[in-house]
Amino acid sequence: MSLRIALLGTLAHHGPASGYELAKRFDASVNFVWQAKHSQIYPELAKMAQTGAVTVEDAGGGRGRKIYTITDAGREEIVQWVSGEDPYRSVRNESGLRGFLVTLLPPDEAAAVMRAEEARHTASLNGLLWLKEDVAARTTPGSPSFGQYALDLGLRTTRMLQQWAADTAEDLERRAGTEHTP
């Protein structure tokens, strides 16, 4: 259901779009928190059209390009999803799983794995910081931008994961009798 809501939200924010335009907008925003491939987006658009969440118009030009527009029913789906209660949220966290399994390695190898984990989170953080600057440059002062609060969550989470990986690596290095020099 969340891919559907993410697509509806992107249409609600940006306005009507072709499938290609919507996929590009999705890639530059929502995809940071809810990943989807273009091959997943197009079938979902077809389902949304069948249920009346979006309308579809031929863009003309003979290329079969279609323009999708969110309907009132689609906007109501967003409201219901955002404000509704969610009894269960599944969590898949590869860093967390790595935290479980890294202890199966010798401490020196485990420390190296966690230093690589720290580097991945550092790279992600740098990307998010660049994105924050880019969004700030395109945002009207005084109003929240589309995805602003999700970006803040991403920054906070990534900083925490980066620090966790560094702390874990440090502990493993201590156990292995090695020291890390940054």
UniProtKB/TrEMBL annotation:
Q: Answer whether the UniProt record assigns the keyword Plastid to this protein.
A: no
What SUPFAM superfamilies is this protein classified in?
Winged helix' DNA-binding domain
* Superkingdom assignment: Bacteria
Residue ranges constituting the Transcription regulator PadR N-terminal domain according to the UniProt record: 8-78
Which InterPro entries does its entry note?
Tscrpt_reg_PadR_C, Tscrpt_reg_PadR_N, WH-like_DNA-bd_sf, WH_DNA-bd_sf
Q: Which UniProt keywords apply?
A: Plasmid
**Domain (Transcription regulator PadR C-terminal) ranges:** 91-173
Task: Kindly give the Pfam families that the UniProt entry links to this protein.
Answer: PadR (PF03551), Vir_act_alpha_C (PF10400)
UniProt name for this protein = PadR family transcriptional regulator
Which species does this protein come from?
A: Streptomyces cadmiisoli
